[in-house]
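Entry 14. Structure prediction run on the chain below.
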Amino acid sequence: MSELTGLQVYKFGGASVKDAAAILNLRRIVREYGSNASLLIVVSAMGKTTNALEEIFQLAYAGQDYARPLAGLEMFHREVAAELLDPSEVEMALNEYLGDLRQSLAELIPGNFDQQYDQIVSYGELLSSRIVAAAIDGNWQDCRELIQTDTTWREGKVDWVGTEAAIWNMLRHKGGPPMHQVPVVTQGFIGRAPDGLTTTLGREGSDYTAAIFAYCLRAESVTIWKDVAGLLNADPKIFPDTVRYPEISYRETIEMAYYGASVIHPKTLKPLAERNIPLRVKSFLDPEAEGTLIHDCRHAALAPAIIRKTDQCLLSFASKDFAFISEENLEVIFGALAQAKLKINVMQNSAISFSVCTDFSERRISQLLDLLREQFTLHYNTGLTLFTIKNYDAASVARLTAGRELLLEQRTRGTFQFVCK
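Output returned:
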């Protein structure tokens, strides 16, 4: 198995396909910057479509009326398609997906929440990819025929052997014009379980999809097109004096992603690093700008990276018999956290208590409490914010903690974290 010579993978997120003007800009980028390479394009759902589908799903799951938001979602996609195309070019595909979505919602019976979530929310990528493929005269491909996962709903684990074989066989030998003449357009975020049901790879998982394709096809590079100038040391919407990293190593970026940096999905870097495939982060608003190159490199000390995660929950566990928190206690707590699918962002223990900070989910927190309340006394606070400073210095710590009430803080050689109200 060898690489497809000169293959590049482009990933366009929701902001870069949010409306007709954005898709026309995407088309310009593909024609100006990707015309000399074999090109595979991964697209996310358009704009805030995933959020809209989550709202629709939650209403349907609760037995409430979802007609108005669903009608708005349908109208939005049809209007964007009509601005770009002769309606006949995508009308059949849109009708099929929207009809399937309506039927799935009508037949929804409360049960496995995460499994049913995947079936509904995945329609965003299917709809957007059909519109984008038609707008750029691309060769559309259903990603679910290629990316094979297990049944870990909402965060499917990839079957790498089966996926690599499927991608190689179906894309390398795909009928029609070669990829350097007609790019392949597919979806991010979604895959398929062995039972044929759709799975998702986690929120913002389209970056990961691009990395999966690049890994399996030994791509020359991956480019993620964002609405920022590259990989920045902080969110420019919150911190006005951000710094762009011109280049950065895989290891540094993996750590930033792990702590919650929003530009790169946490799972994206590992498959790229394994095959030494460079990742570029560039601005679709200024495609000629340098951006950031993420690859195997050494560099001088970096500017402190500030990562902010909102809507956090701080949970504290204490044994009811006032015994020390032992390895046996921790085993029970970790098992319950895994069962409730709550990921630990920070953890800290004292002699008789153990605290963790997680993303807040009322449903999952409730499940955790049910699992542990007989053995532990539990307290929790919600509506909190977690700050992480990677490569911190005294000035960055002082600046960020000034005037805040810190509920938990943790410091290592290179990272400072704190949870605050």
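The chain is about 35% helix and 25% strand.
Filed with the rest of this week's runs.
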